[in-house]
Design goal:
tt1808, chain A, 12 strands, four-stranded antiparallel sheet
Length: about 190
């Protein structure tokens, strides 16, 4: 009987779009629609402005994989992250980002999706990420901030409030309202 070869980090370089290495397999992730992409890009721009003010770190988007060494996971591919490790190169960054943000797509709801999100946040923390955002701009409109130091008690920010990522991104804030496309409050799926 032939067994399937376990995927390796080198295999991720051949994948277009978002993909992670979990349980020896490449897990492809869906591309985002315009509304979620807008929220990601707005947040990335804010992080870029933060780093340009002389703060440490590189804001990187969803096509960057982070090589980690967990028993069942060898790579993350967050929608957005702030990486503070060694200088960037042509290779995937080694180690988890200090801050990661996951933005929910239309299929990111329901009990199975909640379990998946919780498991991924636990993996982030096990790999060394300090703060993880769970962002919903499609239905409930929140930024839920999980901290490694108290993962069971996230802080939730909604429209009209300022979201933050302390202590990972010290002094950085963004108005939750900026994550929403300003010309409409309704979303067609």
């Amino acid at each position: 009987m032939r067994t399937k070869a376990e995927a390796r980090i080198e295999d991720l370089y051949l994948i277009e779009g978002q993909a992670e290495l979990v349980n020896g397999e490449i897990v492809r992730m869906p591309l985002h629609g315009g509304y979620v992409g807008y929220a990601i890009d707005t947040t990335k721009l804010s992080l870029y402005e933060y780093s340009e003010r002389g703060e440490r770190g590189w804001p990187l988007g969803s096509t960057v994989a982070y090589v980690v060494d967990l028993p069942h996971r060898k790579a993350f591919c967050p929608d957005l992250a702030l990486y503070t490790g060694d200088d960037l190169s042509m290779k995937f960054p080694e180690g988890a980002p200090v801050f990661a943000a996951e933005f929910r797509d239309p299929d990111g709801y329901g009990p199975a999706a909640e379990r998946k999100i919780k498991a991924k946040i636990e993996d982030y923390f096990a790999a060394g990420t300090q703060v993880v955002w769970d962002v919903d701009v499609l239905r409930e409109g929140f930024v839920r901030v999980y901290r490694q130091s108290d993962a069971e008690h996230p802080t939730t920010y909604r429209r009209g409030e300022m979201a933050e990522a302390e202590p990972a991104v010290s002094g950085w804030t963004i108005p939750v309202d900026h994550l929403f496309y300003s010309q409409t409050d309704s979303i067609s799926e």
